[in-house]
Amino acid sequence: MTGMTQWVETIPAFVVLTVVLFLPGWLVVRALGSRGLEALAVSPAVSVGLIAAAATVAQRVGIAWGLATLAVVTLLAFAAAWGVGLLVGRLPLRWAGTRAPTVSPSRRLLGRPRPDVVGAIAIGVLIALVTILPAIGRPDELVDSPDAVYHLNRIALFLDTGNFSIANPTFYPNGFHAWVATSLLPGVADVLPGTNVATVVLAAVVWPVGCVALVRHALGSSRLVTYAGGLASAAFVSFPTILLGWGVLWPNLMATALTPGALALMLQAARSRRVGQWLGFAAALPGLALIQPNALVALVVFALVWFGSARMRAGLLGHLGWWAVARDLAILTAAVAVGLLIAPVVSARLASTQSYQWNDRVTTWTALVEVVGGRLQIPHVLWGLLALIVLGIGWVVMRARAALPVVAMWLACVVLYVMAASSTASWTALITGYWYNDKVRLASLAAVPGVVLVAAAAPALRALLSKLPPLRTRPMVAAALALSVLPLSTVVLDAPTRSDFLSSFFRPDAPHKVILSFEAQDSLREIARLIPPGEGVVGRPENGTPLMFALFGTDTLYRSIPIPTTGDEIVIGTGFNDLVNRPDVCAALARHNVRWAIDSPHTYWLDRPERTSGLTDLDTVEGLEKVKTVGDYTLYRITGC
């Protein structure tokens, strides 16, 4: 069976994941008063907020979580939002800003999509699917990243226990996991292929929708710009390609994919001053926080940059005195500085996040080449993309100055990237620590305003082409040629680089980079059949055994790579080879009902042998009975406790 045939079989999972992600939030945002593409673009964030928060509350009050519960929660939220929307509609003009035109209830709910918007999104979706699916290979292909082990096991834990809470098993944002697990409840896919399909939904549906919405708000609603937005959504390798496999930063993938839609609604609300749109934007914020809090920080950064740019522009145009501009910017700078200093003092979790350190520091020039030229983790500069960005900036500066704040947003991302990639000063972590001081996450964030700059290259190219004698009287041909340059200089030109790069995450070129091959999965699947349900098994996480829980439902002690440094996990990991003389080891095994052990010569590259020194060479350990060897894996029954 070919990979594409297997992808076709995942269409039911694709549909369920998409509906669960869009429908609840869309109903709520529409009821609040947001309409059009912006309501659709922001709806996934609202949906995730409903799912993650309601699932946590449901667990606390003893209500089973499922699609039926989600339907009830959605109806209640829709009714509440409709009531708020009606109330807002009756507010005096001085409170409501520019009042929305009166429309029928059915039109208010369903809207009327524009064909060019639908076409632009469809183009973005199609390009994403064509470039992503073959590179991944198969829906059940495992991305070889240690973080994937944790995320897959958490989704499996939600499904196994029925507890979708943010505190299961420990406190961690549950937006991504709760959405995926809720969508998999009908049995449309297993955990691994279902999660892969979920990431495709984010990269190939959510991201293009948000990009088209953002581009239209930044550059206008012409058909040329609209189609350019759909094409520009596929222009970057830094997003979504990298976050589909590196890390694996799936919650960050989701948060970044949702950011353009939220930013578009924020810009729309700021311009229209309609309370309903502000309420829709506010409704999206909890969901972003429950996916990855740095999405909120990113929106704050973009809002601050937008405000500062707007003040500067007002000063240049004479709409505001320079004294007032300087005063406002000084207040803004002081507030930001105080906030940066206080935040890690108030939040120990943030302080821990800001303490992440990376060893691959580069020069400032190299960092600029990586983020501006797209040469991050790939061997060469993406010259086509770079040319479009430069051309787009030129167009904004010369002809579309209302979009200058977006250029400033992109420059802010570039500065953050350079700080994270090149700075060794401790104070920079106060700023870049919200993204774990990780330049990869910041490169992905730069793609959000970067999409607008790439799209701006389309009208610039049309203007240049229209100067050619054969095209002076043929504007449609000039526009079509201008649009064609966008995919030709990015998607087509960079196709081998993009495909090989994404494929390397799923099919590494060295055995030690593979967590669990298909052959190893078959071996562990056969071993899993020998372990009675409910009985636990332990093995070095670096040999891939933690994935037995996500793949086969086997109760594994370790469900992440590497293991924790405290608690029963480290007691068993370091003392298992002396279990006949270690009552504390036997007590820890009993607490987790661990009665089996697995040994294997395979070792994943992220090896922490000091944490599992007692789980090697199990054939020499007293108190174990060898049961069966399948491939590189040997199962032992624990008899010494």
Automatic annotation (TrEMBL):
The chain crosses the membrane at residues 12-32, 39-57, 63-89, 117-136, 197-215, 224-243, 279-309, 329-351, 381-398, 404-430, 442-464, 476-495. Keywords: Membrane, Transmembrane, Transmembrane helix. This is 4-amino-4-deoxy-L-arabinose transferase-like glycosyltransferase.
